[in-house]
Amino acid sequence: MNAVPVRLDHLVLATPELAATVADFTLRTGIAPVAGGAHVGLGTRNYLVSLGGSRYLEILGPDPEQDEPSGPRPFGVDGLSDARTVTWAISPPDLDAAAAAARARGYDPGPVRAMSRRRPDGTLLEWRLTDGSTAHPSGLVPFLIDWGSSPHPTTASGLPVAPLLELTATAPAPDEIRPLLSAVGVELALAEGPVGLSFTVNTPRGTVTFS
Questions:
Q1: CA–CA separation, 38 vs 94, rounded Å?
Q2: How do residues 109-143 score in pLDDT, each as one tens digit?
């Protein structure tokens, strides 16, 4: 099994205090994440770090410059007391076909919907992803994403790099999760324990693990 899952697009490190989590990442790694942009209407914004190749880390939290959103913020941000790696995304060659195949194998990753945000340089990023109440609540099963003709976030100028060395997970019943991972066509190092995702990156300050 690969230490880094095939087709990994990005990891989501969600936090209730975006500025504090970005500062902590910088302190621990010696790498300063760069501003990605705001998710207008959802009440969040993000900072990014490349994980090498076409993979990246998204640090996501409440956007103090936006009004309170009409619904809950994405990725359970409103319920967090500390920063936590909440989920991950893969980029299959054909999102719709991959979603249909997962449903045929007994796992519904949720409906596909379109989203967008603007980078600080004004570039509009548009993507499609699977989302919805049918997705597994643990976050251990990745959602699917398709950037279409939009620039990938890793193409942003000045994006710092912290090469990803490993992604692992724990779950109270790993054998219940493995078939769901298989349904979306991925493998993930999974051990018994509380629900959680951990990733390790190579940085100027050595290897650092986040969970």
A1: 27
A2: 999 999 999 998 899 999 999 998 888 999 999 99
∠128-131-135 over CA atoms, to 5°? 140
Helix and strand totals (H; E) in the chain: 3, 12
Distance CA 56, CA 153 (A): 8
Helices within 81-165 (DSSP H only): 95-104
Residue spans of beta strands (DSSP E) within 17-83 = 34-39, 44-52, 55-62
First to last CA, the chain: 20
pTM for this model (two decimals)? 0.96
Q: Which of 112, 116, 113 is nearest to 150 (CA)?
A: 116
Burial grade of 37 (CB within 10 A; 0-12, 13-18, 19 or more): buried
Q: How many CB atoms lie within 10 A of CB 166?
A: 14
